[in-house]
Write a structure and sequence with these properties.
The protein is 81% helix and 0% strand. By secondary structure, it is mostly helical. The protein is globular.
Length: 415
């Protein structure tokens, strides 16, 4: 079947918009939703941590599913799993369920996202190669980030407004409906171009060799390893910083029932994804190497988080949140282009899932730890502590830079 790179990109952008819109409908109010269900601050972030536990447990096995049975199969399983687990979240809120039930359902949510994580990115890279794409991966990922940012902006604002006008449960209902639509569109449009299913593949057989391949092309590959370890700290803090911003901004604003303000925090992050995606091609030209750009964005992001903790002014906190989100949005496509340039196609989804596993591992530890700091001291102190932790990523970025990987140089690409 002949397919053009434009068709591949259009399908990727369509799926990105639909999935991100459905995901983000609850992102602006998720922490408030958990607190409204009767959980304490520590329990709320522990529930989020169990979500990342699910990611840690299932990232690599679902990467195997994508590499063995197809990226399309993995994507469809993700939409279905998230539909069911979102419905369970709504049920637990209605009955004010016990914490153990929240923990189990959060793990199921994590499972759903792992079906998407490595599979979608691997599908795009392989399909573009199949279609003889002439552009750079930075540009392709940036377009996806812009589309996702627009969808997230609309979704988070809509979710906050809907919750304000109705109640906190309605956004979860709408999210489930959108996930059903996402499943149907993916079933119709998504095909595994450039990917051949492994003959006679079975999950049990593939799992026996998955860690070997992940280690060989991921953790045993020095430049990839160092960026994976760096993301352990940055992503772990990022999970907390994003979700803690909802109640923190409400406290600074002085009206703890204004769900639209909570949605504003997620909307700013979404807008930053759009801006960051537009800026990537231009900012990338100012840096000779991708690792130098990643180092700069990580350092700037840590500084913004620290200043968020030191301010008590609502609007200043919004500006700093925007800065943190923009530099994070710039770093992601560049980092992913660096890593994908060093991974063979046949192991791509598995290695990318292994990368996501390490990122999620940071969230498992750091979310409840920083949530406990907020519970005992304050959200402000937890942000300062988070900034300090994220600085631990910088030495690993420097180590990756020293490897002089073939995908590190940015000059001369896409000409």
């Amino acid at each position: 079947m002949r397919v053009t790179a434009r068709q591949i990109l259009n399908t990727y952008l369509t799926l990105t918009v639909l999935s991100t819109f459905s995901f983000s409908f609850i992102w602006g109010i998720n922490t408030l939703f958990l607190l409204d269900a009767g959980l304490s601050i520590t329990e709320a972030f522990a529930a989020n941590a169990f979500f990342t536990v699910g990611q840690v447990l299932f990232e690599v096995p679902t990467g195997v599913v994508a590499d063995a049975f197809g990226r399309r199969v993995s994507y469809l399983l993700g939409a279905l799993t998230l539909f069911v687990s979102t419905a369970l979240y709504l049920l637990l809120w209605e009955i004010e369920g016990p914490f153990w039930a929240w923990a189990i359902t959060s793990i199921a949510l994590g499972l759903g996202f792992t079906f998407f994580s490595g599979a979608t990115e691997a599908w795009l890279v392989d399909a573009l190669k199949f279609a003889d794409y002439r552009g750079t991966l930075d540009a392709a990922f940036a377009k996806g980030q812009i589309a996702g940012g627009i969808a997230m902006l609309i979704g988070t604002v809509s979710g906050g407004v809907v919750a304000q006008l109705t109640h906190l449960g309605v956004p979860y209902l709408l999210r489930a409906l959108m996930l059903g639509l996402t499943f149907l569109v993916a079933y119709a449009l998504m095909h595994d171009y450039g990917f051949t299913r492994r003959s006679g593949a079975s999950v049990s057989g593939e799992v026996r060799g998955v860690f070997s391949s992940s280690l060989t092309h991921g953790f045993r590959n020095p430049p990839v390893r160092w960026l994976m370890l760096a993301e352990l700290f940055v992503a772990g803090v990022g999970y907390y910083a994003f979700y803690a911003m909802q109640p923190y901004l409400l406290a600074l604003y002085g009206r703890e029932e204004s769900y639209a303000i909570a949605g504003l925090a997620a909307a700013i992050f979404a807008g930053a994804q759009i801006v960051g995606g537009f800026l990537v091609p231009y900012v990338r030209r100012a840096f000779g190497r991708r690792t130098t750009l990643v180092f700069f964005t990580y350092l700037t992001g840590a500084g913004a988080l620290a200043l968020i903790g030191f301010t008590s002014v609502f609007w200043i906190a919004l500006v700093l949140l925007t800065l943190w989100a923009v530099v994070d949005a710039i770093s992601y496509p560049v980092r992913q282009a660096f890593i994908n340039g060093l991974i063979p196609s046949v192991e791509r989804a598995t290695v990318l899932s292994f990368d996501n596993l390490l990122s999620s591992s940071g969230g498992v530890v750091l979310q409840p730890a920083l949530g406990r700091a907020a519970d005992v001291w304050s959200y402000a102190i937890s942000y300062v502590l988070g900034a300090g932790v994220s600085l631990l990523a910088l030495p690993f970025v420097l180590l990756a830079r020293r490897e002089h990987a073939v995908s590190d140089a940015t000059s001369g690409e896409g000409k």
